[in-house]
Amino acid sequence: MPFSNTIGQTKIKESLVQLVDADRIPHALLFLGPAGSGKLAMAIALVQYVLCLQRQAGDSCGVCRNCKKAEKLVHPDIHFSYPTIGTNRVSTDFLPQWRSAILENPFMEVNQWLQAIGAENKQGNINKEECLRIIKQLSLKSFESDYKILILWLPEYLQKEGNRLLKLIEEPPDKTIFILVAEAPERILNTILSRCQLVKFPALLDETIIEGLVESEGITKEQAATVAHLANGNYNEALTLLKEADNDNANLFLAWMRKCYKGNGAELVPWATEFATLGRERQKYFFQYGLHFIREFMVYLLTGTDTVRLRPPELTTAKNLAKVMSFEQLEPISQLFNECSYHIERNANAKILGLDASIRMHQIFQNK
User: Fold this and answer.
1) Which of 202, 225, 257 is the last residue of a domain?
2) Which in 103, 184, 220, 252 has the greatest CB count within 10 A?
3) What's the structural domain count of the chain?
4) pLDDT number for residue 248
5) Which DSSP string corresponds to 29-62?
6) Lowest-confidence range among 37-51, 246-260, 290-304?
């Protein structure tokens, strides 16, 4: 992927080009930013630029042998590491699926990736075997270029296993580059953070998303503007909204809110049973969506305007909730959603958690 195929982040792109051209690129970079801000796409473009044999006007040529292999993600000196599922499974076990997913959408989020490899009720992680594979792979000589480069997507999933990579990141073999692509620095070991040069990615501007959608998806500027407003700087979310007439998480969440308000146990118990079948990654994403809705609902309560980042059905629900919910109730709801996400990550019983959350939501509704 050349830089010309990335979306926005012009200043970051220019600074990376300058580092490469001056032969001053750090051996360890941390691309940090919110989901859908283009971090992974920029990392792939940077790798292609580093390996390109005929750089032209601040971009890779796209025609040399290194560029052709890099664009297909098959260059032997470009290595990837990412969350996987299953005991003792490593990234190379899922390499065909990874290439297919990235070539289709380099802005994808972790839930999409894990579902693409059949995660269902399993959680993704980067395990000990993967760390040992990285150490062994990067200890070998490069095959076709001067550099060996590892793109490690979401080092948050390393957890304590990241200690195994500390020495390699601090003192890598010659001509070895690490690019860590992350979203939650609080979940990464401080010892890893301190060994990387930070490149901070802001959320994309609505204008940038509009331009990208018009060019890549062939829609009108008016259609793109509607989607960009709802996406809140997340290009992946914009693509999802564009391709899906209805958002399953939105529909499921809004229906759940109505059930919680009524507090009918005959409805809440079946809902909790259905919620338990979604799989842990989708369960976490459900509560993440809930936090998004509450955040935008808070803005609506404060401003009273329709310019919040909610689609028409969601905005209608927000207006109805405003009649029965106060601003003070939003804090315990947000705390509840964060607690649910925390316990899902720690393998809580999903049916019990879903029913408990439903009862607590009803109590919050009743406590005015």
Assistant:
1) 202
2) 252
3) 3
4) 65
5) EEEE--TTSSHHHHHHHHHHHHH-SS-BTTB--S
6) 246-260
Q: How many angstroms separate the CA atoms of 277 and 19, rounded?
A: 48
Burial of 148: CB neighbours in 10 Å, binned 0-12, 13-18, 19+: buried
* Contact by Cβ (8 Å): 203, 174: no
Range of the domain at 270: 247-366
Residue type for position 354: G
CB 324 within 8 A of CB 365: yes
Q: Are residues 167 and 33 in the same domain?
A: yes
Orientation of helix 312-322 relative to helix 280-303, angle to 10° = 60
The backbone region for 38, taken as left when phi is positive above 0, alpha when psi lies in -120 to 50, beta otherwise, is left
In tens, the pLDDT along 127-175 reads 999 999 999 999 999 999 999 999 999 999 998 899 999 999 999 999 9
Residues 45 and 121 in one domain: yes
Place of tokens 């580092």: 19
Section 337-354 average pLDDT: 91
Contact in structure between 361 and 329 (CB atoms under 8 Å) = no
As a whole number of angstroms, the distance between CA 285 and CA 299 comes to 21
Characterize the bridge pairing of strands 28-32 and 176-182.
Answer: parallel
The position carrying tokens 């690129």 is: 25
155 and 48 within one domain: yes
Q: Which pair of tokens denotes residue 337?
A: 């959603």
Specify whether 119 is located in the same domain as 181.
yes
Examine the domain organization and report whether 215 and 299 are in the same domain. Answer: no
Task: Taking residues 38-66, report their average pLDDT.
Answer: 96
Q: What is the dihedral of CA 247, 248, 250, 253, to 10 degrees?
A: 180
- The pLDDT of residue 80 is above 80: yes
Clarify whether residues 165 and 227 are in a common domain: no
β-sheet with 28-32: strand ranges across: 78-81, 148-153, 176-182, 28-32, 197-200
**Cα(279)–Cα(153) distance, integer angstroms:** 22
Please answer whether residues 243 and 105 qualify as being in contact, where contact means their C-beta atoms are separated by less than 8 angstroms: no
